[in-house]
Amino acid sequence: MEFLDLRSTYGNSEFKYRSFNLGKEFGLRSLTANAISKFGTLLAVSPKLRHHYLAKKVGLDLNIPIENKQAYKIYKKAKLMKKKGGKYDDEKYLCFMQKSIGIKEMKTCLKNASTDKGIASDTIRRLRSTSAGAHTNTSISALLYFLVAAFYVF
Hints:
The protein is mostly helical. The protein is about 60% helix and about 10% strand. The longest helix has 18 residues, at about 135-154.
C-alpha cells in the first residue's frame, strides 16, 4: 500500500509517498491462510507490533509525534483504542480480526478485551499450553519469538 502525506504537499510541486510493505515490515510474505493466521497470532501477543501495524495501516508513522497522536485519535474515535496506565490499549481491534465470530461472541470479546479473559491473554495461554505438549508447536513458538525479535531490531 502507498500513502501520500498531505502536509508535505502544501506549497510543493514534488510529492513524497510512503509505502507499507507487510512482508518487509511485519514478516507476512505470503497470503496463505496459515501465514495470515500466524500474523494474527503475532499481533495478538505483541501490543507494540499491533500498535505499529494499526498506525501503518492508516498511513501514519509512529516515529513522528503528531502522527502518533493522530493514530490514537483515529482509533479512539472508532472505540478501538484507549490509553491505560500511560500505554496504548488497542486489544479491542483483535476482536474484529477473528474468523466466523457472531454478535454474541463479538460482544463478549469486546467486553473482555484487555483483561485476563481477553483475546491476547487467551492466545498466549493457548500457545503456552500447546507448545508445552507437542514438539511440533515448538517451531511455531520459535517463529513467533523470531518475528517479535525481528520487529524490535528493525
